[in-house]
Amino acid sequence: MRSIAAAVALLAGLKFSMMAQSERAIVDLVLPTANDALFSGDGPAFYQYIERDYKGVKSTPWEGGQYGFVRDPVETAAGIVYTRFHEGIDIRPLQRDARGEPLDEVRAIADGKVVHTNLVPGYSNYGKYIVIEHRWDGSSYYSLYGHVSAIAVRPGQTVERGQGIAVMGYTGQGLNQARAHLHLELNFMLSHQFKSWHDTFYKKDPNRHGIYNGINLTGLDIARFYRALRRKPSLTIPEFIAGEETFYKVTMPKSPNFELPKLYPWMVCSNEIVDLSSWEVSFARSGLPLKIEPSAKQVTQPELSYVKKSPIDYSYLTQERIAGRGEEAHLTKKGRELMRLLIWPD
Q: Running DSSP on this structure, what letter comes out for residue 246?
């Protein structure tokens, strides 16, 4: 355990780091394909539909291609709730050949470095996919391009905004030619110790993607971010995230292995606390971390400290990371394990 003085020094260091990064880098994004219907508000033309069978009624809603809780409806006393979270957006093709194969070029959304390519479709639900690291305001963010058919870049390669990196496809479980699309995400990384954590909790599930496994990457609402940037080109990611609603908070034990404050120092609200014993992390409903605050509460393991009131079981609302209702709300086994990733090894 660190001393109080060391913890206060860490806060001061983080505050200095944030001041040193006052010169903002422009987040200049381009769409990853020629499909720009996102900006005209034409959802059916931009998003690829999903195939849904709800209570025997089959449908193909394009809304299922959006970011957020848009899949797997469940009927509750409070109405229908969509329980499955979609981390990115599914962009439909504009061009196909005579056989129906998609031809759309996939492009890097910003300058960056290729850090991972998965060439074996069966190794991931994303099929063949690419991860590119981008640096803005001193922090790293990761764009992910899934279900591609051909990859034209390799790890370690530097790419420019708008550069061709792949061809759209339909690789990955459950897809077919008719539903070919590009799955796009823009993510934060949770921990560089992910491989060790995964080997501990998922011994029977091989991790073929290192720290670029989808579990370790948590995405923001990239479609809404694109539209917000169009209205305000100077918008930064911290400013965008500041508009997200806090759905729950978790108090984390103070640990030198807690990477989020180092990876994304802008998350830290450095309120002065004499007896700093833990960190309270605010999360969006999606699980995206939003804010980190020092706390005087002493905990030995991650503890749920706040959740927005809802009459619906929280397991439906939080990807099963929280369960129960009202005062009975608590972190599930899955939720506790994921929170331990943030301070791993603990």
A: P
> Per-residue pLDDT for 225 more than 90?
yes
> Side-chain half-sphere of 119: how many Cα atoms within 13 Å?
5
Give the chain's end-to-end CA distance (angstroms, integer).
Answer: 11
* Number of helices (H), then strands (E), in the chain: 8, 20
Alpha-carbon dihedral 94, 109, 342, 255, rounded to 10 degrees: -170
114 contacts 154 by C-beta, under 8 angstroms:
yes
* Lowest-pLDDT choice from 22-26, 46-50, 101-105, 207-211: 22-26
DSSP 8-state code for residue 212: G
Domain with CATH 2.70.70.10 in the chain: 25-235
pTM recorded for the entire structure: 0.92
- 275 by Cβ neighbours in 10 Å (0-12 / 13-18 / 19+) ranks as exposed
Residue 62 CA to residue 196 CA, distance in Å, equals: 38
DSSP state of 85: E
Helical pair 333-342 and 194-201, crossing angle rounded to 10 deg: 150
pLDDT digits (tens, 9 = 90+) for 26-35: 899 999 999 9
Rounded Cα distance between 195 and 70, Å, is 30
**How far, in whole angstroms, is CA 262 from its chain's centroid?**
18
What tokens appear for 333 in the block? Answer: 């086994």
User: Which residue from 8, 10, 13 is spatially nearest to 276, judged by alpha carbons?
Assistant: 8
Decide yes or no: CATH 2.70.70.10 for domain 25-235.
yes
Distance CA 338, CA 344 (A): 10
